[in-house]
Amino acid sequence: MAQKAGVVVFPGTNCEHDVAGALRLVGAEPIFLWHGEATVRGVDVVVLPGGFAHGDYLRPGAIARFSPVMEAVAAFAASGGPVVGICNGFQVLTEAGLLPGALQKNRTLRFMCTTVDLVVTSDRSALTAGVPAGTTLRIPVNNFDGSYVCDDRVLDELRAEERIVLRYQENPNGSVDDIAAICNAGRNVVGLMPHPERASSKLIGSDDGLVLLRALLAARIG
Description:
By secondary structure, the chain is of the alpha/beta class. Helix content is 22%, strand content 26%. The chain has one domain (4-218): 3-Layer(aba) Sandwich (Rossmann fold).
């Protein structure tokens, strides 16, 4: 039986169908989860896709964190359920306190749409379990507020606990320590700025994103 993958939809989300299509390619059954419903409907994994939740008013993710579905997502994460936030979804996870740090404007102060090379720096997360450290993946980025920042204490913790999941080979946005993705202490919640769903076929440049989505469905965290 295919695993059920919940894809959260906020007003302003625009990558939900891309994520659903990529999840189907790796054998999952996508289930759309409306932000106004306080349930994840018994899914096996949850993905918060990219876009502009609530128009990015105040700042990206600041309003979305109060949506009823986020209470259910937080409870799902607390029970050990795998949760991944992509781009705007990463921003929502930091605003909701499920991941540390914050995302600020790119150092260029411009919207960025390009493809980057990433290095897997930890295989101990819901998104990279079973993917050897050192693996290089080519995946697009598409954001304006994509520069990850945190204080020195958090950065020390992320490094010491091997919770930096992906790094940019060449930092495109000014993220501290070249960080492209991090996970929580339980390793079941991951946020990343690159879009794995946009690297789902070599016909569009790369299918490296499927490596991460397959790992998500097969994840055994420990």
